[in-house]
Structures are given as structure tokens and as C-alpha cells.
Design brief:
Layout: E1 6-11, H1 15-25, E2 30-36, H2 40-49, E3 54-56, H3 59-63, E4 70-73, H4 80-89, E5 93-97, H5 104-117, E6 121-124, H6 131-141, E7 148-157, H7 171-174, H8 178-181, H9 183-193, E8 199-207, E9 238-245, E10 250-256, E11 265-273, E12 277-283, E13 291-297, E14 300-304, H10 314-327, H11 336-354, E15 358-359
Parallel strand pairs: 1-2, 1-4, 2-3, 4-5, 5-6, 7-10
Antiparallel strand pairs: 7-11, 8-9, 8-15, 9-10, 11-12, 12-13, 13-14
Helix pairs in contact: 1-10, 4-5, 5-11, 9-11
Length: 362
């Protein structure tokens, strides 16, 4: 495909869809030929901005566009499965927003469809493309931390329930609350930095204390009530999980949309290794002075604060997706790594519901 532009379509007009559009538009060997979404004004505005010839309200019409090579799926979670399956069945490569799917069953079908079609299925885990995460991964790969045996990862919000009363808080549409929304990001970050250890068991708890009472949303000064939400708050607003890893390691996850704590939207990870430690702490999406590396210098405890920069985020993921498609070696890019994340999240929900530890199969 190196002798012609990659023709792509984007489904979804929200933040993720617009990030995909920006990423594709920067690449000279890509042509955005189709865009789909239900918001007519936004569809028209983005179509004009990016000079997109084919604009659709229905994603099915976009998938059927002649000459399309790839599709970016930037929709609510419940649509990831049907759009991805339809695109792969039509012989299109797929870039899908996180999480891969609401359930393991859906995710498995998506991976199997990618394997059957021989096309690329890549999932957007943009936070591993942050400058601090990339710098820390380089240090880990160089052996600076030794063997990492324990990690703690978190994403905590004070008032951050997205779209109170919308699809995010509807279990059927979203698959869950902050655990599947934010937790999948920090889970991916941790497993990526720890070189993909196998998760053997999980023990999790979920809580819904503020959301059901209309609290925890920053979208309105007036707190909504259950009667005015449009949809009942059906998911958790805080989750915690303890994961045992093959080889004796462990990972602790903590994530919330809403909880009484210091104001802000903060995430990060702390790693404990045999030769050193590290910590990333991000407050309100900052990208400066977020990484600490802990070591010894001449037997004296030392702390290093590398200058890392922001990184490219979504743009890096889009660029990598295009590079994979153009390289022509697609067999290893079938969404299976993202499916592992879905399997862990599923097991966490199962553990919380059952009130006991759950063993992961496979």
C-alpha cells in the first residue's frame, strides 16, 4: 500500500473521533474520505474542516463506502463490537477506541473476526504514548529498575462522572463505570510497563455511593436527582482491585469517577523493582515534572526527575496504526493484547459481584 494513500473513515464525532481526525489529517499518505455521526451540525462542521467528501449519519453507510481501506471506531462502547465486526467482515482495517468491548464474549468475537479477515485490529491506548510513560518504559527496558515485583496504579476524580444520565452511566451501553472507563487505561499502562505479565487472579470491590444520589458530576452546578438523570445510575463510581501476577508479582488498581478527596482529576503509577523504583503522578493532565525514578548513588538514596515532555497521545496511536497497515505484516495485530485487558476487567467485575477472588483461565 506504499504507492497510494490509505483511505480511512471515522465513526464518531466526540473527543475521540476528533482526535482521530486530527491524527489522520497530519499524515500525508492518508486520505480521510468518510465521516459518520448523529449530530448533524457537528458532522457538517467537521466535514468542512477536514474536507471530507462522504458524510453519513449511519455508520452502516460509512462501512459500505467504496474504496475504503480502514475505519476508526470512536463511538460509545456498545457500538465497538458491531461496527468492528462489520468493518472486518468487509475487509477493512480497524482502529478502535478503548475499551475493546463491554465483555470478554464481545471482545473474543472481535479478535476472531480480525484473525479470520487477516486485517489489523488495533485499540487506542493513548496514555502509553505520554512522554513520561515512554521515558519510564525505556528505563525499564534498560534494566534500571530490575525485576518489578509490585505496582500500584490509580485514576481518581473528585467530581468526574461523565455524562450523568447518559450512556456512560448505563450499564448496558457502557459495560461498567470508572473501572472499564479509566481503569482500563491504568491497567494497560501497568501491564505495558511491567512487560506484559500474566494476571492469574483478581480480587475486587466496587462501590456506588455518590452517583446514585446525583452527586459527583462536574457538568452542572445543580445536583441532579435520580428522577432527572434520564437514566438511572447503574454502574460503580469507585472500584479497587488486587491482581496476582504469574511469577509472584502483584498489581493494585484504584479508580473512581467521584469520591470525597482533594479536588482534581489525577492518575499515575508506582513501580517497585529489585534495582530501583519509579513513580508517575499526573494532576489534571499535566505533562511536566511528573516522573520520579528512585535509586541509590554510592549507597545513598537518590531521586532522578527526568524532563519528559507531553508525548503525542492519540496522534502517536493513529500514526502507528497507519504504519502497521502500510507495512503489510498484520498477523500479530489482531486485538489480542487489548482482549487481555477486557478479560481482567471482566474478572474484576465478577469478583466484586461474587465477593471473592476470581481465577483467570488461560
Amino acid at each position: 500500500m506504499n504507492d497510494q494513500k490509505l483511505r480511512v473513515g471515522v465513526v464518531g464525532l466526540g473527543f475521540a473521533g476528533q482526535a482521530a481526525l486530527e491524527g489522520f489529517a497530519e499524515l500525508p499518505d492518508v486520505e480521510i474520505v468518510a465521516l459518520a455521526g448523529l449530530e448533524k451540525d457537528t458532522l457538517a462542521r467537521l466535514g468542512e474542516k477536514f474536507r471530507i467528501p462522504h458524510l453519513y449519519e449511519k455508520w452502516e453507510d460509512l462501512i459500505a463506502t467504496d474504496g475504503l481501506d480502514a475505519v476508526s471506531v470512536a463511538t460509545p462502547t456498545q457500538l465497538h463490537h458491531p461496527i468492528t465486526i462489520a468493518a472486518l467482515d468487509r475487509g477493512l482495517h480497524v482502529l478502535c477506541e478503548k475499551p475493546l468491548a463491554r465483555t470478554v464474549a464481545e471482545g473474543t468475537e472481535m479478535v476472531e473476526a480480525a484473525q479470520k479477515s487477516g486485517k489489523v485490529l488495533k485499540v487506542v491506548f493513548n496514555h502509553r504514548e505520554r512522554g513520561d510513560v515512554a521515558a519510564l518504559k525505556h528505563q525499564i527496558d534498560e534494566g534500571q529498575l530490575g525485576r518489578i515485583y509490585y505496582a500500584k496504579a490509580h485514576w481518581m476524580r473528585r467530581n468526574g462522572i461523565p455524562g450523568m444520565g447518559g450512556w456512560f452511566t448505563n450499564r448496558e451501553l457502557s459495560g461498567g463505570g470508572p473501572l472499564i472507563d479509566l481503569g482500563v487505561h491504568i491497567l494497560d499502562m501497568a501491564l505495558h510497563l511491567m512487560n506484559e505479565p500474566k494476571v492469574t487472579t483478581v480480587s475486587a470491590n466496587t462501590f456506588a455511593e455518590l452517583g446514585p444520589r446525583g452527586r459527583g458530576s462536574s457538568s452542572s452546578v445543580i445536583r441532579p436527582t435520580v428522577d432527572t438523570l434520564g437514566s438511572k445510575f447503574e454502574v460503580e463510581d469507585l472500584a479497587t482491585a488486587y491482581l496476582r501476577l504469574e511469577g509472584g508479582g502483584a498489581l493494585q488498581l484504584e479508580t473512581s469517577w467521584a469520591t470525597y478527596r482533594a479536588p482534581g482529576d489525577n492518575f499515575g503509577i508506582e513501580l517497585f523493582g529489585t534495582e530501583g523504583g519509579a513513580k508517575i503522578e499526573v494532576q489534571n493532565y499535566t505533562s511536566t515534572d511528573t516522573l520520579r525514578i528512585f535509586t541509590d548513588v554510592a549507597g545513598v538514596p537518590a531521586e532522578v526527575r527526568p524532563a519528559t515532555g507531553a508525548g503525542l497521545g492519540h496522534r502517536a496511536v493513529v500514526s502507528e496504526f497507519v504504519a502497521i497497515v502500510q507495512a503489510g505484516d498484520w498477523s500479530a495485530h489482531n486485538g489480542s493484547e487489548a482482549l487481555v485487558r477486557t478479560q481482567v476487567i471482566d474478572a474484576c467485575y465478577a469478583s466484586a459481584q461474587a465477593g471473592r477472588e476470581v481465577v483467570l483461565n488461560g
